[in-house]
Amino acid sequence: MEVAREEIYYPEETDKKPSKFDKNKLRKSKKGKRLQKQSQEMQKKYRREKLFFGTMILIISIISLGLLLRYVMITEARHDIHQLNAAITDLKNDERALRVEVESLARSNRVEVEAAERLGMIYPDTREVNYIQVDADEVNRIANHLEGLDNQESPNQGFIKKANENLREIFSRVEALF
Questions:
Q1: pLDDT higher for 163 or 90?
Q2: Are 113 and 105 in contact (CB under 8 A)?
């Protein structure tokens, strides 16, 4: 024996939408109102959870992308460093090869062969060599005169000597600028 039977609508359990009559009936009953509030709260909670998980997935994706880009930058920098190191070793090898070439070209016998073959130069005969004999005393007297150590200076020579010293000083300052 059944005394009363009340139909309860649970929106989570059925996919069938209630009719207008059923909705009105649910709204009128106290249990229906309570169930409706629970249903709305569950929907809000579900939306919040969806939003929270969606935001977390987005944040994790952004962080992962940032880390990935950083690793890409590091890898590119390592690649550039490797290329520069390879270029340095190539340049050092080229420098060594050029030094060897310079040393081989600078040898005196090589220079002698080039002078003889390309320029047509030959050693002079003993008859073609002229020797000059110079008196040592005369060389010392001329050197002392040029250095200003000669005791017989005229007043004009002192002026010229000072002018030459001033000019040398001026030229040395100008030269120091360049």
A1: 90
A2: no
